[in-house]
Structure formats: structure tokens, C-alpha cells
Design brief:
By secondary structure, the protein is mostly helical. It has a domain of 45 residues. It contains four helices and no strands. Helix 1 packs across helix 3 and helix 3 packs antiparallel against helix 4. It starts with 5 loop residues before the first helix and ends in a 5-residue tail after the last helix. 18% of the residues are buried.
């Protein structure tokens, strides 16, 4: 199995999450505990960019919704 470049994966995730609607991000945030650390970081960054502090806090603690 080929190893994934972390920076390339971070860019891919940032692009993916930036294209999601708010409701789609909320759904992902409810299951943040299932994400990789890179995916959680990208999700937190996108939620913060959109001003979703509550979501960002819950994702930070891995609580979901």
C-alpha cells in the first residue's frame, strides 16, 4: 500500500470540506470521532473559517453532536 503524503492529503481534505454545504459539514461533525487526525484538523479549520465555533469546539473534543 502506498503511503499518503500528509500535505497532499491536507490540501485534498481542505478542498473537499470547503465544497460542502453547512448541513453536510454538520453531519460530518457529528461523526468526527471516526475521522483521521488530518481530517479532524481540516474539518475544524473549515468550521472556524465559516464561524462555526460551537461545531469547532465539539470536533476539538471529539464529541460530535
Amino acid at each position: 500500500m502506498a503511503k499518503t503524503d500528509p500535505e497532499q492529503e491536507r490540501r485534498r481534505l481542505n478542498e473537499f470540506y470547503s465544497g460542502q454545504l453547512d448541513g453536510e459539514l454538520e453531519k460530518v461533525a457529528t461523526q468526527a470521532y471516526e475521522l483521521t487526525e488530518l481530517a479532524r484538523e481540516a474539518l475544524r479549520a473549515e468550521l472556524t473559517r465559516r464561524g462555526r465555533e460551537l461545531w469547532q469546539e465539539r470536533v476539538h473534543f471529539g464529541l460530535g453532536f
